[in-house]
């Protein structure tokens, strides 16, 4: 008799834990989809690269490289130079020679 009560109690506890775990996951899912939709918005690469390359001596080349990096990373650092670590993907793009690709 004690064994059957123990078995019944353990089944009830297991069911409650499983149910609480599913309820917690269902609360987390909408928040993740909102974050994903915010992160998946495409930025205006031509406008962002125009600002980024406005003081470059070779603007055409700068805009071409910036545009490629922006398309790949969906991010362009603020300002006309520096700040590359604010966009890790942008910062990590390199040429075949190992130099930084993105202006």
TrEMBL record:
Name the record gives this protein: Snakin-2
Name the family.
Belongs to the GASA family.
Q: Does the keyword Cytoplasm apply?
A: no
Signal peptide start and end residues? 1-23
What keywords is this UniProt entry annotated with?
Answer: Signal
| KW Signal (keyword) present | yes
Species of origin reads: Arachis hypogaea
């Amino acid at each position: 008799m004690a064994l059957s009560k123990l078995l019944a109690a353990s089944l009830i506890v297991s069911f409650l834990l499983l149910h609480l775990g599913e309820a917690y996951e269902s609360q987390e899912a909408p928040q993740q989809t909102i974050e994903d939709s915010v992160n998946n918005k495409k930025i205006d690469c031509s406008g962002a690269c125009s600002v980024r390359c406005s003081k470059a001596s070779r603007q055409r080349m700068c805009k071409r490289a910036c545009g490629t990096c922006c398309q790949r990373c969906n991010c362009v650092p603020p300002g006309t130079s520096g700040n590359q670590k604010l966009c890790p993907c942008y910062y990590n793009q390199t040429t075949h020679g190992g130099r930084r690709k993105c202006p």
